[in-house]
Amino acid sequence: MSQSDMIVLTDVVLITAIVQRGTADQVVQAAQEAGAQGATIFHAHGTGVRQKRMGLLGLTINAEKEVVYIVAPAEQGDTIFERIFVCAKMDTPGMGILWMTPLEKMATYVPHEIAARFGLHFEGRNEGKGEGRK
Length: 134
What we know:
Radius of gyration: 19 Å
Low-confidence stretches: 124-134
Mean pLDDT: 81
Number of strands: 7
Shape: elongated
Order of helices and strands: EEHEHEHEEHHE
């Protein structure tokens, strides 16, 4: 793939959720039902003020977490964000944290027939393939 085949997407957001271990699959399913196309999940170990206070009381807090990254169009961001919040029970103390960050631009492989549905134009070599921008 040459630089002329790069499709740069703008007006996208990165939704990051840090949730209790074992919850990520449910979070991703809820996000996909809200319009997300996919997600990246990885394991993490977290600590914080809450664990220190709870530790003094003799309660055990699981420090093993799962981190979920979802890139989505900005117009779908709020819907996906809210669905994750509800699914992960983030209104309960200690269940996790969720944030959304606007991305200036992102690039990934997008099949040309799908890019055309979003109004991305292709010029140049390789049978009309080229740079596209949204």
